[in-house]
Structure formats: C-alpha cells, structure tokens
Amino acid sequence: MKIIEVSEVLPALKRNKTASLFFLLSGEHPTLPFSELKSILEAEGYEYRISGKLTQVLRLETNAKSIRSIRARAAMTRVCASELFTCNTSLSDIYGKMQNAPLEGFIEKGEDFVVRVRRVRETAPSVTRMELERRLGEIILNRVEGVKVNLHTPKKTFFGVLTDNQLVFGLKLAEILPTPFVKRSPKKRPFFHPSAMPAKLARCMVNLARPKAGELVLDAFCGTASLLVEAGLIGCRVIGLDAQRYMVKGSLRNLRHYGVEPEGMAVADALHLPIAEVDCIVTDPPYGRLATTLGQKTRDIIEDFLSKVADRIPKGRKICIAAPKTVKIGEIGKALGFKHVESHFVYVHRSLTREITVFERS
After folding, report:
1. Last residue of a domain, one of 175, 208, 228
2. Number of domains observed in the structure of the chain
3. E strands within 228-351?
4. Which of 8, 49, 207, 355 is least surrounded by CB atoms within 10 angstroms?
5. Measured between alpha carbons, how far is residue 104 from residues 8, 108, 132, 220 in Å?
6. Is 1 part of a structural domain of the chain?
7. What counts of helices (H) and strands (E) characterise the chain?
8. 234 assigned to some structural domain
9. Are residues 49 and 165 both part of a single domain?
10. How far apart are the first and last CA of the chain?
11. Distance, CA of 24 to CA of 62 (rounded, Å)
C-alpha cells in the first residue's frame, strides 16, 4: 500500500494541526464503511468533526496522522486524501476552484504528478473523466513551476471523486487495497467451514468494537477464528472459545497460519466463561443451516450470553455481535441494560440477513 508521509504534504501537519481530509469508501454496504472509519478514529483517540457525508465519501476535520491507523486497520476504506476543494460538477466551477486552490505544500518544483478522478454511481454523466483529469492537470502545470506529468510512477497523485453531483478533490495520501482480505477468504485458510465469516466483514466487526493494539479481545464462539485472525493482525491480544474441540483445533491452525499467537484457546461453554475480564468482545454465535447450535435456539444462546458478560468488560467498552435479523438482538441487549450504540443489516442470502450490533457496557 502506497502512502505519502503526511508531514511532507502540508507544512501545517508538522505542527500536529487538524487537516481537511476525505475518504473514498467501499460501496458494498450503505452504513458499515462510514461506521468502521469513525470507530477506528475513536479507538485510536483521534478527535474528528464531520464536514460532509456523500455517497461513498466521508469528509472530516481531523489529525492527518490518523491516516496511518486507518490504513493499518480499515477493511472498507479505499482511498485517504487531503482535501483541496469541494464544489458542484459544473465544469466552470471545477476549473475556477482549481485555479484558486492553495497548491503550496501539495506539490513542489521538480516533482511529478498525475490526476485521477473516480465516478460513484453514474453521477454527473455529462462530465468526461479523462478530459477532466487532463484539464485539471494542465491547470496544475501552468500554476506550479518545474513540475511535470508522470502517468505511470508519479510522486504525487491528485485525486477526485464525483459523487452526488459534487466533486471532492485533493491529494491522495494512501490507498488501501482489498487484496489481503481476498487472500484470507474462508476457502483459502488451512481450516475451512462453510459458515465462516469473510475476512473483510470480520475486520469491520473488530473495528466496530474499538480495541487498540495490545488490548485483549474475546470471541466466545470462535468457529474458524475469522474474527480473532483480524483482531490479531491489527495488534490485539486474542482469546477464543468454542464448544466443539475440532473447531478450537481448526481455529488454532488458522491463527498460526497468519502469524497470530493467541493468549489462549479453550473448549468451553460461552455461557460459563472461564475468563475474568477482557477489553472488548467480538463474536458471531452459531445460527443458520451450516452452523450447529447444539440443540439450543439462537435467540436463547444470545440472550443467555449477553446476560452473563456485562461484568467481563470495563464500563464504556464495547461488544460487537452478529445475529440473524429475526432475533432482534438490539432489543435483547437493551432489555439487559446495555447501551445500544448501532446496528447494521447485512444481506447474506434469501433466508438470512445478519444484524451486526454494537453494545456498550453502561
């Protein structure tokens, strides 16, 4: 993943000041990418102010050093950029903004660059992307002495997103590729089970629980360790439990395959936790046709589990848990005294829509 040192982009960043940033998000879900990004900032202790929310784009005022955490953790963010301007998609407005944009610190004499623009959901169909890129590049060439275009290996990439009939434009600071998550897809792991959660969704759930590197994360229904692998890869300490011995053994194989050494793995009943306290819980209890509930109803498992874990995490810390939408897990948690932070609904197939829910211990 390519990243520019943010302190080299804007002089203000050397003084640890707030910067105007924007993020191109994955379009695979309407709410999860936005929540994941905000959860990472909260987990890492970065204050932020939302300056705009568009389709697949979030504009923020925050410390640009946060990009390092986002690049290392995010599953559903695609591009991080420093914002130069936002305007409507009228070409006269775009070129006028570009003529007056403060380029000092964004590109210097002797550097080469390229301009790239992406379109979201067919917005502004009358705008030709290649022509827009060429014209914006010409303006930069005319305004900054001694710079040149490099289409293949540029030092700087100016980046824009056409969305909701607006252009958000600036300098790319990092691009997050989906390739690592594809390589960790369930069928590519040493131990496979058809109920396993995809790596990208597992990473997103971990981020929604807001752990920091070094903190202890518990998955009490660990299955094939999808969640534990992703927590371990961002530097968390992990513990996994499962009621079935072969699942625990398989989880351990998967964890070690990705270089994650757990604090502990145990064959244990999640309703009788052999653990005093952890920093947060991320879990996906068994449900559906491909998972076994050992004769219990999924709703009963979840209700019993939540009723017994409140004292296992500190006040203010989070539990991120998945369940079928029909279980109405948000209602269960609230009835048990948890603060319901958020819920997201993820379609899996005709008979299953997951509710991804975050609770906070009050």
Report:
1. 175
2. 2
3. 237-242, 264-267, 280-283, 318-324, 339-349
4. 49
5. 11, 7, 22, 52
6. no
7. 10, 15
8. yes
9. yes
10. 39
11. 16
Q: Are 289 and 203 within one domain?
A: yes
Distance between CA atoms of 23 and 236, rounded to whole angstroms?
Answer: 25
Dihedral sign for Cα 138, 143, 148, 153, please: negative
| pLDDT tens, position by position, 285-335 | 988 544 455 567 889 999 999 999 999 999 999 999 999 999 999 999 999
114 and 13 within one domain: yes
Asked if residue 241 is part of any domain, the answer here is yes
User: b/e for 282-310, b at 16 or more Cβ within 10 A?
Assistant: bbbbbbbeebeeeeeebbebbbebbeebb
Q: Find the mean pLDDT for residues 58-81.
A: 96
Helix-helix angle 226-233:199-208, to 10 degrees: 60
Cα distances from 9 to residues 5, 104, 168, 171, in angstroms, run 7, 9, 18, 9
Return the half-sphere exposure (C-beta side, CA atoms, 13 A cut-off) of residue 11: 5
Q: The whole model's pTM is what?
A: 0.94
Find, among 179, 116, 113, 166, the residue nearest to 140 by Cα.
113
Which residue's entry shows tokens 């219990």?
296
- Nearest in space to 140 (alpha carbons), one of 122, 127, 165, 157: 157
Which residues face 197 on adjacent strands?
Answer: none
Give the end of a domain, one of 175, 192, 211.
Answer: 175
Measure Cα distances from 170 to 119, 137, 179, 297 in Å.
Answer: 15, 12, 25, 51
Q: Using the predicted structure, report yes or no on whether residue 79 has a pLDDT greater than 50.
A: yes
Q: How far is CA 180 from the centre of its chain?
A: 13
**CA-to-CA distance for 167 and 178, rounded, in angstroms?**
24
| Residue range of the domain that includes 144 | 6-175
Q: Is residue 210 part of a domain?
A: yes
Query: E strands within the chain?
Result: 18-25, 48-54, 57-63, 77-88, 112-119, 148-149, 156-163, 166-175, 216-219, 237-242, 264-267, 280-283, 318-324, 339-349, 352-360
Do 186 and 136 share a structural domain? no
